[in-house]
Amino acid sequence: MLSQAVMPDHALKDKLKALVRHASTSRLKIHTDSPEVETKELGPGFRPGRILASNMVFILVSGDALRLTFKVHFATGTAKNLAFRIFGGNSPADISEKQAIDYFKEYGNLVAGSVVTLLGENGIDLGISLPLSTRGFYEVFSDYCEKQHPIITFSDFWELRANGKNIHCSAVLEILNQKQLGNLAAYEIVEAASDDDAEIDFL
To answer: Would you give the DSSP letter of residue 150?
Structure first.
């Protein structure tokens, strides 16, 4: 039986960040057919709201206890390079910009679905929006200010490297009901045995 105690703010924040990062890494391994995905922290000069790439896909995960906005920031060339084998092309030049964006829209969908599954194992019900794409420039309008009232709001930023290509991820998390997230205190993230068999279905 997992503990029902409410976690301290810092421990709960760290656990939620770890869950989202795990989802982003495990899904990218599948999406790029790469056994190794490297996670890097952004440098000390990074400031939230800085434009990270020319394109951005975002998706919302939401429920009574939690709201998550997950974003993946990527260059068109990177997307084409990672996607052309999936789409049956001979080279990145065979991939259209729409296909490149669709590739990362589906990645965002996979990450959101993984978060829903992980939190669902703790009795936390969440829904998922459709992934949307926009230009990376609009990142300058994002609000990453941390808040404690009336809703605990915080963010996380990281870089992923797969098949020699880099993308950036960001997450804004809003804790709407801290008590409902108490089960996360004892939750250990375990790689699902079926991850290697996951299929990619483009939207």
So the answer is: S
Measured distance CA(194)–CA(44) in Å, rounded: 37
**Cα 168 to Cα 5: distance, rounded to the nearest angstrom:** 34
Strands 132-135 and 55-62, sheet pairing: antiparallel
- Mean pLDDT throughout 115-139? 94
Token pair for residue 130?
A: 């459709």
Place of tokens 């810092």: 10
> What's the pLDDT score for residue 131?
97
Nearest Cα to Cα of residue 198 among 31, 13, 4: 31
Burial of 49 (0-12, 13-18, 19+ CB in 10 A): middle
Q: Catalogue all structural domains in the chain, each as residue range(s) with its CATH number.
A: 9-41+48-182 (3.40.1550.10)
* Closest residue by Cα to residue 30 from 159, 137, 156, 160: 160
**Reported pTM:** 0.89
Cβ-contact 163, 28 below 8 angstroms: no
pLDDT (0 to 100) of residue 2: 36
Tens digit of each residue's pLDDT (9 = 90 or more) over 59-100: 999 999 999 999 999 999 999 999 988 888 889 999 999 999
